[in-house]
Amino acid sequence: MKSFVNIVNAVKRWSSMMMPSFVILAILVLWELSVYVTGIEKWILPAPTEIFQSLVNSSDLLVIHSLQTLKETLLGLLLAVIVGMILATLIDVSEWFQKTLYPLLVISQTIPIIAVAPLIMIWFGFGILPKVIVVALVCFFPIAINLADGYRTVDISMIRLLETMGATKWQIFKMVKFPGAMPFFFSGLRIAGTYSVMGAVIGEWLGASQGLGILLTRSSQSFLTDRVFATIVIIVFMSLAIFAIVEVLARVTMRWHYQQENKD
């Protein structure tokens, strides 16, 4: 009986994975047929096969620019994780910080990053640093807010038990609070990881010599629409790869959490 249930669950998981693939494939087929039937110009809307051909022909160029964007993305995401964890912890340990920082964090997200990015370029130049800062600004908010919410949902009875046993605040944080908040932390990190590549591309739009953002700008100005779409494909795959890496890290570091989910 247990093996039958496992087979059914595997079929369900396989079906849930295949359905989006079939939808994407159907869209690509319709796209290809529409371009072929209408005879639309390549510089207006290239067919999927032409985009694939551009991916192959421009592979060397795409690799060079992708590595630059990936470096900016990972550094910015790492900075966002550090800043987000610090802010969330300050909000949790101090009511004064909670009343002061929480509203400021929310207000910071009402300012369009596209309006702030040029100022960062003016202040920090056109090197890698401003792009890293832009990525961090895009990514830190979901990490900080989700982790702060996670700290608040930790079982208070566990904290009281450790306090009666003479545990220090650091021991309580290490043994109860942070492990209990980890699902929330990884939820925020998934969102941040998805946005991180976009943040790097925005920074590169405004001034860079390398990166997918500047490649997008140059390709669109040259009416190389097939290369624009090829670059977008790379950006999408990079974002999905970062999301997948975060998911793997979550499953490795929170095995107890996923085991509990499977039991439920």
UniProtKB/TrEMBL annotation:
Q: Name one GO biological process term.
A: transmembrane transport
Q: SUPFAM superfamilies, from UniProt?
A: MetI-like (SSF161098)
The family database entries (PROSITE patterns) matched by this protein are listed as: ABC_TM1
Matches recorded under Pfam families: BPD_transp_1 (PF00528)
Q: Where does this one sit in the cell?
A: Cell membrane
Describe the location of the ABC transmembrane type-1 domain by residue ranges: 66-246
The entry sums up its family as follows:
Belongs to the binding-protein-dependent transport system permease family.
What this protein is called in its record is ABC-type nitrate/sulfonate/bicarbonate transport system permease component
